[in-house]
Every structure is written in structure tokens, then in C-alpha cells.
Amino acid sequence: ALGLPEALIPVQLLWVNLVTDGLPATALGFNPPDLDIMDRPPRSPKEPLISGWLFFRYMAIGGYVGAATVGAAAWWFLYAEDGPHVSYHQLTHFMQCTEHNPEFDGLDREVFEAPEPMTMALSVLVTIEMCNALNSLSENQSLLRMPPWVNIWLLGSICLSMSLHFLI
After folding, report:
1. In this structure, are residues 76 and 120 in contact, taking their beta carbons and an 8 Å threshold?
2. How many folded domains does the chain comprise?
3. Does a structural domain hold residue 54?
4. Residue 34 falls within a domain, yes or no?
5. Is residue 62 packed enough to be buried (19+ CB in 10 Å), middle (13-18) or exposed (0-12)?
6. Per-residue model confidence (pLDDT) at position 105
7. How far apart are alpha carbons 20 and 162 in whole angstroms?
8. Domain limits at 12?
9. Distance separating alpha carbons of residues 111 and 90, to the nearest angstrom
10. Residue 161 and residue 168: Cα distance in Å, rounded?
11. Ranges for the Cation-transporting P-type ATPase C-terminal domain (predicted)?
């Protein structure tokens, strides 16, 4: 929709979904209950599973994860020291990069298929997902009231996921 080159290829999305997110998602099953669970009344059977607030929260998280991931790839094209330093217009119109288009003089089309921006996007996505796993310790409690070490399995899975990511 933005006209940008792909930030992630399908195999990278599989890596995130199956390998790096799988371990923390499993470990979240070992979370202790919220501290105030017995003080709250039961949820009404007529109440939807995903409330308006929870839907907004999911949309906000998806928005900033997507923006940071795409932004990391775009940053490489625009500003990185070893990047091509293209303009935003060139980046969003990269499909028009031909030898006959004067807007792209001196720019090789291959630069829009470079692995560096995809690597940056993948690393940003994995890091944010690990932070979101910590954010998922409790729906209502802060990390100060329910610190990460209450679920040692989650901390171990985050370390293992990050280690696997560093290996690739």
C-alpha cells in the first residue's frame, strides 16, 4: 500500500511465527494467575471474549509492530551509513526504477532487493515480539507488580529464541 519494497519474505515470516514466537507463546501457558484474580467477579457469559478495549489494544500493538518493522527496512534505504541513501520518492516508486527513468539515474535496481533491510526488519520484529511476550505476563498488572521472573520458563524461552535468531 505504501509502494515500498518487501520488508520481509515468506520464509522470514515463517521463522518468526514458528520458531521465535513459538517458544515464548508456549511458555506463557505457565504464567501464574493475575494477583487480583479472586477479587474480580466472573465474566458474564454474554460478554464477548474480546472487549472493545482489548480489540483496541491488539490494533495498537499491531500498528506499532508493523510501523517499526517497515520503518527499520525503510531506514536502511534512506539513512543507513552503508545504505543507498535514496529519496523517499525513489523508495516508494522503486517499481519505476529503469535505465530509461531519469529519476533513478545512477541507481541500480538491485539495491531494492538487498538483504540488509530485510534483516533489519526481521531483527526489529523478533525483538519487539520478545518485548511483547514480557508485556503478556498479565493483562492488567504492570511489570513492577508481576515481574518477569515469576515465569522463569518465559525468560528462558526468550533467551533461547533470541539465541536462535542470532545464529541465523
Report:
1. yes
2. 1
3. no
4. no
5. exposed
6. 85
7. 7
8. 1-27+73-168
9. 12
10. 11
11. 5-168
Instruction: Please report whether residue 58 resides in a domain.
Output: no
Which pTM value belongs to this model?
A: 0.87
Distance CA 79, CA 87 (A): 9
Mean pLDDT value across residues 103-131:
92
* 52 inside domain: no
Cβ count within 10 A of residue 34: 16
pLDDT for 37-94, tens place per residue? 788 888 889 999 898 988 999 999 999 999 999 999 999 999 999 999 999 998 999 9
Contacts of 120 (CB under 8 A, 6+ apart): 72, 73, 75, 76
For 53-83, give the DSSP string.
HHHHHHHHHHHHHHHHHHHHHHHHHHT-TTS
Quote the CA–CA distance of 127 and 158 in Å, as a whole number.
10
